[in-house]
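Build the 3D complex.
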Amino acid sequence: MSDQVTLTIDGKTVTVPKGTLIVEAAKQIEQEIPVFCYHGKLSQVGMCRMCLVEVGTPMFDRATREPVLDENGVQKIGFFPKPMTACTTPVSEGMVVKVDSGAALDDRKAVLEFLLTSHPLDCPVCDKGGECPLQDLTMKHGSGISRFNYEEKQHFPKKYPLGDLIVLDMERCVICTRCIRFQSEIAHDPVLAIENRGRHAHIVSYSDPPFDSHYSGNATDVCPVGALTTKDFRFGARSWEMKNVPSICNHCGVGCNTVLGTRKGGSGTGQLKRVMPRQNETVNELWICDKGRFGHHFNESPNRLTTPLIRQDGQLVESTWADVLPFIGEKISSIKSANGSTALGGIAGARLSNEDLYLFQKLFRQIIGSNNIDHRVGLNANFEDTTAYTVGVGVGTDLSQVGKGSTILVIGSDLDQEAPILYIRVAGASVKRSAHVINIGGRRTKLDAQAQTSAYYQYGTASYLVLGILASVVAQGLVNQEWIDRHATGFSEITKLLQDFAPDSVADTTGVSSAEIEAIAKSYAEAENGIIIFGHEAGNDPALGAAIEALAAVTGHAGKPNNGVIAVLPHANSRGAADMGVVPNRLLGYLPLEGEAGLSAEQMLSGNSIKGMIIAGADPASESDTYRECLQNLDFLVVQDLFLTETAQLADVVLPAKAVAERDGTFTNLERRVQTFDVGIDSPLLAWSDWLILAAIAGQLGADWGYASADGVMAEITQEVPLYQNMAFENLVAPVSLDRQTDHYIYEGMSFTADVHEGIQWATVAENEQQKITLQLVVPENHTGSDEITLVTPRILYDGGRLLAETDVVQSHVFQTRALLSSVDAKKLGLNNGDSVTISQNGTAVNLPIQISRMLNEGTILIPRNIEGRPAERLVGSSDVHASVKVKKS
Amino acid sequence: MWSEKERQELDKILEKYPPDRKMSAVLPALYVVQRRKNYLTDDDIKDVAEALDVTVTHVHSVIGFYTLFRKEPTGKYMVQVCTDLPCALRGAEDFYHRLCERMEIGSHGGTTDDDLFTVEGVVCIAACDKAPCMQINLEFFESLTDDQIDEVIKRLRQGESLTAVAANY
Amino acid sequence: MSKVLDRHLIFRHRDIENIQNIDTYIKDDGYSALKKALKEMKPVDVTNEVKSAGLRGRGGAGFPAGVKWSFIPKDIFPKYVVVNADESEPGTFKDREIMEKNPHLLLEGIALCAYAVGASASYIYGRGEFLSTFRPLQQAIDDAYKHGFLGENILGSGFSLDIRLHLGAGAYICGEETALLNSLEGLMGQPRNRPPFPAVAGLYAKPTVINNVETLSGVPYIILNGIDAYRKYGTDRSPGTKIFSLSGRVNRPGNYELPLGTPLRHLVEECGGGVIDGKQVKGILPSGAASSIMGGDKLDTHLDYESMVEAGSMLGSGSVIILDETINGVWAAKKNIDFFRHESCGKCSPCREGTHWLKSVYTKIVDGHGTKQDVDMLGTIIGQMEGNCFCPLGEFVVPGVRTSLGLYMDEYLEMVAGNEEASQPQKDLIHTFF
Ligand SMILES: Cc1cc2nc3c(=O)[nH]c(=O)nc-3n(C[C@H](O)[C@H](O)[C@H](O)COP(=O)(O)O)c2cc1C
Ligand code: SF4
Ligand code: FES
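Done.
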């Protein structure tokens, strides 16, 4: 039997794959069947009844199975006695569907009238007005008169806070349950439900806190009416007044595509009214997390830097670009001539764009002549990933397609916190498409509930575990020799070393049994597609990256779509910072450095050889007292930032930079996808883009770069960085042929029109037939088990970062400084929720209240990084992720 | 908090369902905790959610759907008089109003002053041939006369057990 | 009362005292059908017997039980038998009597069904109000376990079966089989999409037979006495006996087990002792609140599936409610609308909003404020619901209103007579839009 089915919809013939639903088939021929409860990403419930159509199928004689013919010899069509829901009925061969026929049209009007019986018809003040399927359909099919008795309308509270970000107007709700299904099927936070039945049914959330989810904003997007709105956008603007500017979220490395809904305000400056997800099936599908959606209000914070500042008599005072730039030039030149160029160093945060980062390294390496540059401060914890370069996920990887036959290993990452949309996609691959997701970590994380397999290692032993898995792959004879021969060298050398990592001995070290290790090895090696995602909690250990690289290579899970490795780096452009060579020991595009490596951020900030620094978009002073002292002792410090950060307060010159929404540029995401963002709103008048600031400084030092725009910088990058040769702006913004239906917003598309792009991934070594990967293992540092408690310092979504701190609406979500402890340990120490403990390590001690957590195993205490007071960093330092600590009741 | 006895009862309930289908026990478990106060408090609901590994939101949603669960305090005895068509054809509506009057709670249901009885009219309870009929805490009372109402009320007020009283009707 | 049955097939307790006692039950050939099946018959034979006997579902739809059992896939385990004891249709009270008075018959029927389809677990889902009904039933189950008719390796046959009781909590919709399954799984009792049908993916997504209490209680007689003995009762296409729950304006309301095909007049006049005070029958609701109402002139209709459809109504679950001339037809229709509005689960819009709207219009008419347009509106609303609802509950609303409008239009008109149209101005939507 053929896999294709041909049917007729309102006289038009269409051929679609078997199993396609009638709505989807109709979409193909632009025959819109109205829906409310149907959503292409959610399960089908067929409950709103809006999509009723007449359906007929070719008639066969029951006895003979012969077609029944009419007088013209044409097979008769038997219509079902009742209309069918197009959203749940799959097509069949020869089916005849009537959408705009009399009967179907009448049914549609009937259902619409029912839906409107208690609707308040307040479109003029509704946020959804102008992009509301209910409004559109009412204009198209609705009667002008309400026949329903107004006194009998159902009443509900008008602006009911479902959580502190989302507001419910139940009177507008059509009970389609899209929001409920989004929360349980996509976000895996089943915190919404229907309460009561019949006409009294309404949407509720009883979680503590209410609507407890990192994804709540998406529920407002899937809501086909104005029932769910976001607190910050309510009554903010009408949809048609806004300009929709394509952008990229700047909060984490997933690189979700967003749109900035901007409106010209009274003063003429553009206002950012809302941030919405912009469809990109290969990155974020239709979703963004709440941090991305709500975390933009820092843009209009009164605390923004608006003008250059210069230190005079110990005080930072307002100045002008014309005054500060020559001053910077002079100071840098004089330090260089007095102390040599290696007395100068720079730190550029990984939130800067590729253009900024490129010029940053160019300024230091070519103009100043120093390799002392780095991007790894704060959350980066000195972490250096090069697996992306060799065995990163293949070009064309699309997690929304990964399913049965694929194995995804997640190692040491709480994805729901570190890379929320990546979490959604990995969980979806498991739950919706039956990929084998194996979640490996030192503690339980949310993904455990969706993963088929979970394994827990002792903190600090992740690299042993990966080596054990690798050894087991080899021992079970599961290596892909052909792939190795073509793409790698050094295999026989590493097998020798692996003899020390037999599953049995690794089991002792890691606490993961040899049977589990073997099963993981087998599942991963034998999978058709294998992906490894590893993150922060696996530890900061060179042995880990090397082992992961080898594991991907020897199983042949690299160099092709849906295979390879993703390192979960923290910032929006951490990948780009590595690509641009903003590290002391490597050049652009992962090219080796000839000569001596420079100092890392940590070295620069802990020693005394550096006399002058430029710090762009980073705040190391907030992290540690050592760093702060070091910065205080500098002869000269320039800081470019959005806010007067703790680091900026120590600077000699502070330069106001533009935020992402105020400028253009490119970011490279975790999957090495380079994506562009556009200018959405005006910046403070005197703020400059970071690349422009850097170019101006270079100019003061005698360079004549002459860049006119970020595109111009990118044009040079395409020349200088072979990996980026295709990344010219015009390529990045070329329209893409995604399977998207943005004008069909009633199904699942975007409710606004905006440019959509797919972005371009650069190719890894594994994809390059001319290059080979040199396999090399690193023996992990000796792991000494501790009988003390292990402190773990994960990254979390709502941390104490400056951008969130400047965003009012999410304040109640920001993590309140405390430590999490397992109930077993709490009992041992005689602690209750809220009790205070003293946590100490090598002479440093902090006092924190505790919270007992179900997610922790015995012997671990958890303090997130980058929270108010930075207790985690004070205890473990900037580059470690965990440490043995002593915990006492205080 | 589950008492020892309730815990045992819950364990017996859970034995009925496959181990990975604990959610099936939501209704039976709610009956157990509802007996504590004759209505469900937030703590009762949390107890059920935790014992069955479901969200509190889910439990609320189930409670709201079914009429036999209550989140508001009621009298000790829930008196549910059928006033649906088959019974109404045999005078059940008038009977209901009379019953309310005899309990001095107006004529449309409510709770008696001593908080002992809450009366409400309900849809068919499968006793249509024995109208007028009612349930008190789900025990059937059928083919009732007005005098019998007085007697039932009296005996319950005197503290006789419901099952003993119900056995006579 | 004339006796049309020499013996009751299901209501054996009316012939034999104390049959809820397992020893009495066994003495009356109880569990002999199960013994016979386990010893002499292959599972498929049991299904075929039931199929050939023509036993049809007694829960309302009348679907042939044996055919339903034959849909159960052989190779998927576990399978379940779920017994529908939700009995919430206004006017139905037969299953309760079986469970309270002759519980072993039901248990034996379940065991036969489970054996036939290869199930080893069964749940009896009763409405929450059946707390006391489940006591004798639980007693019977305990006794059956003790006697080895339930549990592991029943009568040494290798066949095992557990039967468990589960109470709902007050929701008519849970009688609808897929809503029942959701409720049994611990969810709101809202119906599921079909396909997949329960036979393929029912309870816990496993193959599931769902039958009514009375349906399964009919099985032991068939297995023990054979097809011909069963087909001696009833008509060719509606064989066997059926229990009719007679209620409303008759002298002796109650359950009556009669051969299918018995004239309605016999049920009302002989069994029910005629109408109270010798009044005329004004309307007959033969299948509870969901009925198409039949006029008093239809008393000679035969009580079988086919004849009832021919007469413009349905046999349903056999809950016959009698209206007499003292009853106002509009009021009666409104009572049923109140019921459906109360019980609409809220899943689909036509039922959720339609029942609400109907109630609003009916209330207006019955309270004396209605107009002729309101009466017409009733017809429009049911027209908008018909065929458009997710499950039969919403569709059940339609026939009652439609037939009541047909039979009692003069009463409707009388109630609205003299009321001016548009006493309350209708709002113009366009104004509220702009
Ligand atoms: C709204 C609604 C309520 C129902 N209520 C019951 C009920 O209370 N008892 C019952 O046995 N069947 C009821 N049914 C029918 C069941 O869905 C199902 O057809 C029946 O349990 C199948 O068993 P049977 O084939 O033995 O009749 C109801 C159906 C609907 C649509
Ligand atoms: S709130 Fe919106 S999404 Fe949720 S059910 Fe109502 S209409 Fe649907
Ligand atoms: S029923 Fe099909 S879209 Fe809602």
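Chain A has five domains: 4-116, 123-230, 344-380+576-720+728-742, 387-567, 789-889.
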